[in-house]
């Protein structure tokens, strides 16, 4: 075990003097009593468990189309109760403001009238859906399920890296990671009071029930998937099974007189809430892409008529656009009359001439992202890129500056991780999953993603990252 913390980065287990932090003390006493061979054997058992359960994902654009396991690290990430409570307050605050923003831009547009965000930024955004203007949604909730990506840079400082409000994924890995850890290390859970996460599917089901049209007392809920070839299909099937609802594709549904029905062996059954994992563009060929075979003809009409609820709502993407991200602290002040509890990462918007000039002069030190990018695709990590890659990306920026934002290379915190050489620090982020119904709630913890390569700051599974179980210890 390397007892020296990585210089420059906050080590979540070790202090600067190399002492084990209090929240890791009990875990480390247990781990130090084990030979490395035991950890390696348990890691192999975990991989076998995940293979047997079929927990895989597909990487878009790969020629063989093969599905892969997301690497699972058996060393947990641990939070104390007090630090989690502070995080939870900031996460809830942020999601409340984002839902308020979405309701506002599709109704009175007060934030535009107040000059806090420009009409161009909202109305010309590719994710803005004019079809939603004036449509009232139950509880004024657009993003019923949100994934808020956080990075830690010091003991008491977290940054929000981005907001995922369209079809955030990864919660199945959070749940299966916990199941695997409890099966592999029951003695750890006997000795630690770890807050549970296994009630998330019930919380999700309750949230979807609360989203149903007001006239429905016992709503029929389905999970809508693009199909088995989608990279997150395992999660779609997993969540439907855990909630005890039907997993459907577009072809399983139809619209009649502005109501949505599901084909069943006993005849048509009306559907009231659709937890959809299909992007806006493919939901309804009559309203959006006419070539879509994934959606349901007339679905938008039924939705706008109030006869079915889509979770998440149509048009939420305008709020998780990376250029809109810049304005979230202002949204919190505007809608909630509060100061933000969590900070944004300092961000340059390349549509601004001064920001563009600075970024172009400092590309080797910065991270540049596409405004509507996700999954780690289409980004430049300056410090780990070659001169040729930087120059090629410079040309992309110059061709359409408004399509990019830039941020400093963050000093992501590190957590102990089992690698070939033993247990060593690796960089991590965190995605808590936030549910918004009549109230905003989340389970304690989330999906910790870890960059498995030494020195790497890219944690996305599509880019070779892995995951960890995330523990929040009770008081």
Automatic annotation (TrEMBL):
Gene3D superfamilies: 3.30.1490.270, 3.40.50.11290. This is Circularly permuted type 2 ATP-grasp protein. Residues 76-451 form the Circularly permuted ATP-grasp type domain. It comes from the Bacteria. PANTHER family: BLR5612 PROTEIN, SLL1039 PROTEIN. Pfam families: CP_ATPgrasp_2. The lineage of its organism: Bacteria, Pseudomonadati, Pseudomonadota, Gammaproteobacteria, Methylococcales.
